[in-house]
Amino acid sequence: MRWRWRWGKIMHSQKQERYVRGVLCIILSAFCFACMNVCIRLAGDLPSIQKSFFRNLVAAFFAGAIIVKSMRSKEPISLRVQKDARLPLALRCIFGTVGILCNFYAVDHLLVADASILNKLSPFFAVVFSWLLLKEKIMPFQAACIFAAFGGCLFIVKPGFAGAQFLPALIGVCGGLGAGLAYTMVRRLGTMGVSGPVIVFYFSLFSCLIVTPWIVAQFAPMTVRQTAALFMTGLCAAGGQFSITAAYTYAPAKKISIYDYSQIIFAAVLGFCFFGEIPDVYSFVGYGIVIAASLAMFLYNHKTGGS
User: Which residues contact 232 (CB under 8 A, 6 or more apart)?
Assistant: First the structure.
């Protein structure tokens, strides 16, 4: 009985450690993606597909560099993926690319606030798809926290679709759906032992190849400042991709997706620092709701042992 108690304690500690790592990784990814959005804005008036190309090109380069560097170590990372993981990897690449392109299209054709709230639907879809495809249960309290955080986002971005066209809005929703399904596949690949750099490399490379014909035909000349901004966009995107890939490898979407909403808070701080944007009262109410929901989720998972 005593050895069983000790074994149970060790397993509980390992679960908690993986959960905390997942939380830290997804918060880091939120910060990186917030920085990425700032860099996209600093890049100026360039085609959205061209911005997405450079975003993924830099991420592919860094992921490839990590894989090549690992070849000299004792634990080299192989680009070969086992047969049963090829379909989830393909789905991650396809729906991740759809999510990026749809999100950029929404940003170009809708109010930034409207496009942002549609993109923040991805954690909802990640939880739903994790339930449908990975059979991960959703506790009522966890669902309530997610809806509360989403309500906080509504206070912050204050979406209003009065002047928006139906098609761009629908495409924005498809972007959130694509991202949610892609993150679910990341979780699936993580449980199958596929390393983060491999997932990021294949996804980023696939996204670049898909839009290459358009880039060749419609490339827009860029200034040095725009090139630097797009390089930083790709660098931040790479950090975000690596972090979120690690996050969903450490823990299920239902337990950590709530922390993805911290990107809204990071965006507000960076917006003030770079563009002098000052949030209104409704935004601060939203920040409070998001922080409270995140804290409630953390305490709940800590109390239940992250189960």
Answer: 35, 39, 42
Q: What is the mean pLDDT of residues 191-198?
A: 85
Contact in structure between 60 and 201 (CB atoms under 8 Å): yes
DSSP states along 204-270: HHHHHHHHHHHHHHHPPP--HHHHHHHHHHHHHHHHHHHHHHHHHHHS-HHHHGGGGGHHHHHHHHH
Please state whether the predicted TM-score (pTM) of the whole model is above 0.70.
Answer: yes
> Phi and psi of 124, rounded to 5°?
-60, -50
Which sign, positive or negative, has the C-alpha torsion 84, 138, 200, 173? Answer: positive
**Helix, coil or strand: residue 304:** coil
- Mean of pLDDT over the chain: 81
Q: Which residues of 210-225 are buried (b: 16+ CB within 10 A; e: fewer)?
A: bbeeebeeeeeebeee
Instruction: Give, for 202, the enclosing helix (H) or strand (E).
Output: helix 196-218
How far apart are the C-alpha atoms of 182 and 191, rounded to whole Å? 14
Give the tens place of pLDDT for each residue, 216-246: 888 889 999 999 999 998 889 888 888 887 8
Distances (CA, A) of 227 to 32, 48, 127, 240: 19, 14, 36, 20
pLDDT at 164: 54
Whole-angstrom Cα distance, residue 99 to residue 284? 28
CA distances from 130 to 186, 211, 242, 257, 262 (A): 10, 29, 20, 11, 21
Residue 22: pLDDT over 80: yes
